[in-house]
Amino acid sequence: MTGERHPTLAAARRSRNATLSPRLSCKERVSRGPSGYERSVAAALPRTLRLATAAALLLAASCATTQERPPGPKVNDLDIRGTDDISEGDIKDRILTSETPWWGFWPFGGPRYFDANAWQADLRRIQRYYQAQGYYEAEVVSAEVKQQGTNAVSLQVDVKEGEPTRVAADIDPAVLDGLPPEFRDEHRARVLADLPLKKGDIFREAAWEETKALIEDRLHELGYAEAEVGGEVRVDLATREAIIELKINPGLRYRFGNTFVATDANPQVPPRRIIEQVQGAIQKGDWYSETRLAEAQARVFRMGVFGAVKVNRGAPDRESGTVPVVVDVREAPFRSVRLGAGVGVDAARQEVRALGEWTHRNFQGGLRRFTVRGRAGYAFIPNILNRDKAGPVFEVTTEFEQPRFLFRDLRLQTSLTAERGLEQAYDFWGGRLQAGVIWQPHPNLSIFPSYNLQIYRLTGRVSADARVPPIVLGCTSTSGQCYTALSFVEVAAAWDRRDDPIAPREGYYLAMSVQKGGGPLFGGYEYVRLLPDVRYFQPLDADRRLILAVKVRMGTLNPANNSPTSIVTRFFSGGATAMRGFNGQRLSPLTALPTQVDEDGDGIPEAVTQNAQWDTVPVGGNSLFESALELRYQLTDSLMVAAFYDSGLVGITNFSAKGPRLFGPDHYHALGMGLRYLTVVGPIRLDIARRLNIGRGLPVTTPGYIYPDSGGCFGLGSSWRINGPRTRGATYAGAPEGLCALHLSIGEAF
C-alpha cells in the first residue's frame, strides 16, 4: 500500500454518496505461475542437486540481508491498539516500519530502525488499509514515539475502527441480459454462482476486484472470448452501505478455429507435431475455453524440446464466430548436461555422492530422447565414525524414449541400469532392464505397463565377523553369496490433482502399482505385489496458510505357495518420507548380528552368549501400512511449522487371515513436530518424532535375542541388561529402536 490517499476515498469524505474504484478494468491478467509440467520438472531434479542449489540460495540470501544502519534509533517495540476486527499482524505486514524481532541474531534477520518520514507515511497506510477492508470510519487516534535510552524507541498507535460498510444487495442478474437468449439462463447461473461479494458481507476492495475477475474468467471459459467486466461501487457513509453497479459486455460466443504455429527460423521440430499436441486439448469447432488453451500449452511444453511455449488466441473473426489458436514456441538446446553433488545423512547411513546427467532430446530425429545418468559415492553404515560397513556405491542408467509410439499419447520407454550398493543387511551388484509404454491421455493421468528383469548378486556380509543368514535374504543357496533373478510385469498408474507436487497445498494424489513375477515369466520367485498410495491436501483457511495433509499407503507381497521372498521385493518403512517415528528402513523385521569369536582355533568363529546389546539389521517384510495426518501452518513467507501423527506397520507375513492386524500390537504410532524453511527448490525440512509406547517390540529373527529394557531418545535414557526381556511383549513398542527420530531433508514428507 502507498501513503497516498485513494481519490475515490477522498471524494467519499466530501459527499455522502462516494464512488469507489470507478470502472476498474479486468482485462489485465495475473500470471498463474509455472505450468504443471514445469513443476513436475522441478520435482524430478535430484534431491541432492536441489540441496546444493538451496545452499547457494541461502548463502545469497544471507548476503542480501546485510544493510547499512540508518541514522534513526532502533525500534524495540511496535504496538497497534484497538484492532478488534482487523488483525494487528495484517496491519504490520503492510507498513514499512517494523519492530526488531526477538530472533535478531538469526542471519536473515537483524535490528529494525526508525525513520520519521516512513512512520508518517505508515500512519496513512494504516488508515488506507482499514478503508480497503471496508472500515471507512476508521482513523488513527494517536501515534506516540517513546524514547528508550539513547538509541532505541518504542512505538504505540491507537486506532478507532468504527463500523464496517456492508454490501447493500446481491449482484443484479439483469447485468447479464446481453447473453444469447438460448444460453442466457444456464450461463447466468454459472457466472453468478458463489461470488466473493454477497448481500450483507463487509465490502472489501480485494473481494470487489476478485468478483470482477472471476466473472470475466467464467465468461471467457464459456466461450465469450471478448467479454469485458467493469463497474463502480457507491459507498454511502451515512447508511454504511456499498451499492454495486456492475457493467458487463459479454460480446459474441466463439468457437475455436484453425491453429497457427510461430517457431524459430529453420525449426527442427515440425509444426505438424506441435499442432498434433494442441489437438489433444483443442478441436476445431469446440466452444472457446481458456482452460483448453492452458491445457494445450502444457501439452506442447511436455514435449520437452522447447525453452518457451505460449498458446494464445488470435484476433476473433466476428463473421465466422471463430477464434484462431496461435502457438509461439522457442526451441531449447537438444543436448544438455547436468552435474551435482550431495550428502545423505541418516542415523543408520551416511553417504557422499556426485551426480551427472547427459540428455539428447532429438536422438536420431523424431524427438527421440536418449539419457545417460549416473551417481557415484561412498557410503558409511551406520555412520562415518562407526564404519561397521563402508564402501563405494554407484548407479549408471541409460534410458531411451520414443514419443508418439503407435499413437499420439503413447510413449515407448526402455532403460538399462547397472548398480553397486550397500544396505544395512547386505551389499549387492545388480542390473535392471525395463521396457514399457507410458500412456498419458490426460495431463494428470499416466499409466505405465512394463516388463522388468532384475538380477542381483547379494552378499550377506555385515562386518568381518558376522553374516546375515542367506535364507533371511531370500536366497536358496547357503553360501555367503547368492544370485537373485526377478522377472515380472508391472502396471503403475497415477492420477495427480495436486496444485504443486513439491509443496502441495490443495488436491489429491492416487497411485497404484501391481507386479506379477515368476510363472511363465520365469525368474527365481513367483509372487504378486500390490502397493496403493492415497494422499489428500486441503487448505483450512482463506489465505491457504493452514493446510491439512493426509496420506495412506498399503502394500502386500503374496508369494506363490508361501514360498520365500527376496529381500529386494520386500517392504521397509521408517525415515523422512515414511513412518517418521523410526529412522530410515528401521521399521522392519530385524535380524541380530551376534558378536562372534573363534574359541577353538579352527578358523571358524562361533557365536557367544549375548553379554551386550547386539546390532540389528532390517530384512523387510511382506506387508506394509503407513498413514500420516499432518497440519502445516505458514508463519511467514519463508517459515512453516507442522505437527503430525504417523503410524506404520511392516509384517513378516502378508495381509492374510493370519497376518498382522491394523491397530494391533505390531502397528506403531508416533507424534512429532517440524520446521520448514521455504525455498524455490522446495522446503528444507526438519522433523522430530517420538514414538508412543503402544504395542510390542519389533520381530528379531535371531533365537534368544535379548531386548533392551528402555529405548530413550537419541541414546539418552536407554538401558540394556543381560537378564533383560527375551520376548517382544515384555519390552517397549518398537524395541530395540530408540523412541525418538530426527529427520533433515528437502521436500515435504508427502
Automatic annotation (TrEMBL):
<dbReference type="InterPro" id="IPR000184">
    <property type="entry name" value="Bac_surfAg_D15"/>
</dbReference>
<dbReference type="InterPro" id="IPR010827">
    <property type="entry name" value="BamA/TamA_POTRA"/>
</dbReference>
<keyword id="KW-0732">Signal</keyword>
<feature type="domain" description="POTRA">
    <location>
        <begin position="73"/>
        <end position="162"/>
    </location>
</feature>
<keyword id="KW-0812">Transmembrane</keyword>
<keyword id="KW-0472">Membrane</keyword>
<dbReference type="GO" id="GO:0019867">
    <property type="term" value="C:outer membrane"/>
</dbReference>
<protein>
    <submittedName>
        <fullName>BamA/TamA family outer membrane protein</fullName>
    </submittedName>
</protein>
<dbReference type="InterPro" id="IPR039910">
    <property type="entry name" value="D15-like"/>
</dbReference>
<dbReference type="Pfam" id="PF01103">
    <property type="entry name" value="Omp85"/>
</dbReference>
<keyword id="KW-0998">Cell outer membrane</keyword>
<dbReference type="InterPro" id="IPR034746">
    <property type="entry name" value="POTRA"/>
</dbReference>
<dbReference type="Pfam" id="PF07244">
    <property type="entry name" value="POTRA"/>
</dbReference>
